Amino acid sequence: MEQIRQLIDSILSSVRDLLPIVLVVTFFQLVVIQQPFPELARMITGFLLVVLGLALFVRGLEQALFPIGESIAYAFARKGNLFWLLTFAFALGFGTTIAEPALTAVADEAARIAADGGVIADQADALESYSLGLRITVALAVGFAILTGVYRIVKGWPIQYLIIGGYIGVVIMTAFAPPEIIGIAYDSGGVTTSTVTVPLVTALGVGLAESIKGRNPMVDGFGLIAFASLTPMIFVMAFGMVI
Amino acid sequence: MELLHHLLSTALSTVVDVLPIVVIIFGFQLLVLRQEIPNLKSVLVGFAYVLAGLTLFLVGLEEALFPIGKLMAHELTDPAFISGVDAPGQALDWDDYIWVYLFAAAIGFATTIAEPALIAVAIKANQVSAGAIGVWGLRVAVAIGVALGIALGTFRIVTGTPLHYYIIAGYVFVVIQTLFAPRMIIALAYDSGGVTTSTVTVPLVAALGLGLASTIPGRSPLIDGFGLIAFASLFPIMSVIGYAQLSEWWVKRQQQQISHDSNKNDH
Description:
The structure holds 2 protein chains of 2 kinds.
Chain A: H1 2-32, H2 40-79, H3 82-98, H4 101-116, H5 124-155, H6 159-176, H7 179-191, H8 197-211, H9 217-221, H10 224-242
Chain B: H1 2-32, H2 40-77, H3 79-83, H4 98-113, H5 116-128, H6 135-159, H7 163-180, H8 186-195, H9 201-215, H10 221-224, H11 228-266
């Protein structure tokens, strides 16, 4: 009985989460573009799948992703081995980014731009190696970002100095990077952090800040994602300059 | 039948995406930390929820939202729609694109509210702040930031001004805001920039950018079509800090009023 009530609650809250999208799409389709919906039945089926999927995901979030991130943070804090903690941070950042489908799409697009601009030969293997090089660059950037972010939590440094330093890095790199890479570099910061990585990394950061003496989970625990969206910009522009 | 095929192939690719994470986590648990995962059974069930949930979510988006969203982006950026019936064939000015900006803002807001990664961060922030940061307050603040960011980003594509001027000006603004921000919110605000743009927002926003850049004369879709995501990651930082500043100001004002009232009663 309790479980059924929980399920209904989470489905209702998913409906609420998705209501804005339904309203926006309906308004623009019927009022602005003034056309009926194509394939209405298919849209309704899809919408029901989205609602159910979101409800399940939020359930799994609280049951798996948050507890795992926290328990790893506590275990590392107990063990007190900084080297392995940083290795884990780097591996998590690198490993989750290299396989990220959104990044693969952007990297392929970038390779085509480079070929059109005459930076690389317009051949399949040249395109592929450029795209792979870009993906490895971004993955290294995210690995480095999580590593730096975790080290910051351990040391308790204020986040703004590091982020502002990163901004200055982006500005300097923008002055020297080839213009055709800038748009991709700026976007690559946003595409790196996937739906599964974000909750894990957030729980890891908050868990570390909770278990290290003198750290405040609110002030020190967040910020890992911020690093992961900043460093790829710098790394990708550097990649554009080297190639 | 087609739907079933779609579900299975998406399930497979979701598993492949999550595999590196699982390998790293279990590898470190077993080899480095040498500990058993607490509540292993419940965690595994939770992981199954995550996988099933993401699969249904993605398939549903691809069935319902992405086709219509992309079609709308295409129709709204079509010069024939923008110039309207009264003045076909005329050169278009930036203010003819008003529906594009409105659509950009509305779809940016709506997709951000539905973004699962943001829901996760908002839940966590609510727990950690002991309720001081509301789940909906944070999400709406971020969504307003994304809405403004994407609307400005489409304006940039229409006018063809260089991307980095906007982004650098945004950085300067964020730095100034940081100086005056409550310390508690800074890290969370920076995080909310990166969280906003994932599963739901990116495909629609990318379609809008590419659609605009390919219909406006003089824009190259390959160069000008990018950059909307950068806007969507920058502006939430400002709106979240702004939200914190506003609520701080509100609390102070109310406290002042209370002390003012009690002073009056004393006399």
